[in-house]
Design a protein that fits this description.
Number of helices: 6
Strand order of the largest sheet: 1-2-4-3-5-6-7-8
Largest sheet: 8 strands, mixed
Strand content: 15-25%
Radius of gyration: 17 Å
Structural class: alpha/beta
Order of helices and strands: EEEHEHHEHEEHEH
Helix content: 25-40%
Distance between the termini: 10 Å
Shape: globular
């Protein structure tokens, strides 16, 4: 296993400076870059631990605070464990914050994160991988469509509202995506019903995007997040295997070491 160095960093954007967590191998050598787009709960201890796990595999990982316009993460107070009761109150407070992060703002911010990584000595030259969770899955698809020359791979897990009737729905980015896409859907997720999954996969197929969409049986929305009641250990381990498989295919076996 690779020794990892994790630090808090600041990334300039058009809307001010975003706080972020950077994890990378401690030797300082340039490694393939991975941009993580979080769920609505944002950067917190479990997310940093997950970034460290990716870095230990030999990658440079940036996890920005997507809601930096509201201040440093977390933008609302979070308990150590988010159960169903706490979740409702947290989302009541987060909803206006989420609404402020329009697709246009999120895409502009993503461009800033990608530029910052391109200038980072610890990030290897070339395109990056995107990993998105919950709302971050939709942001990852939009980012891949907006910056096709900078994104080589997209992984999204338990994403919601990925293929709606909204004219800005994430699935409409498919014709502009050149990256390989892997999506792991939650089986029990009202925010992504079967008809949306079908519409999303059809859009990717019609656009000629190399992709795989899988439904994780019995898994709830948020199944990768160990600090929530939605966590599913079996589904989480499948997520890790799928993610590292995508990174290996993208950067080549051994490219991260």
């Amino acid at each position: 296993m690779t020794d990892v160095r994790g630090t808090e960093v600041r990334v300039p954007t058009e809307a001010g400076t975003a706080d972020a967590y950077l994890a990378r191998p401690a030797d300082g050598a340039p490694r393939p870059a991975v941009l993580v787009l979080t769920d609505a709960f944002g950067v917190r201890p479990t997310v940093r631990e997950a970034a460290d796990r990716v870095a230990r595999a030999g990658y440079t990982v940036l996890v920005p605070n997507l809601f930096h316009r509201r201040g440093p993460a977390p933008v609302v107070e979070l308990p150590g464990f988010i159960d169903a009761e706490a979740r409702g109150e947290i989302f009541r407070r987060l909803r206006p914050v989420m609404q402020e992060l329009t697709p246009e703002r999120a895409t502009t911010d993503a461009g800033a994160y990608l530029r910052w990584l391109a200038e980072l000595p610890e990030a290897a030259d070339g395109p990056v991988a995107l990993v998105g969770y919950c709302m971050g899955a939709g942001l990852a698809l939009r980012t891949a469509g907006a910056f096709p020359d900078r994104v080589a791979a997209v992984a999204g897990f338990h994403g919601g509202r990925l293929a709606t009737d909204d004219p800005r729905s994430p699935h409409l980015a498919a014709p502009r995506i050149t990256a390989e896409v892997y999506l792991g859907h939650a089986d029990e997720d009202p925010s992504l019903p079967p008809e949306q999954i079908e519409r999303l996969e059809q859009a990717l197929t019609d656009a000629g995007v190399r992709h795989r969409c899988e439904v994780y049986p019995g898994a709830a929305h948020g199944f990768t997040q160990p600090d929530t009641a939605s966590y599913d250990e079996k589904a989480d381990e499948r997520h890790w295997a799928s993610l590292f498989g995508l990174l290996d295919r993208t950067f080549g076996p051994g490219a991260s070491t």
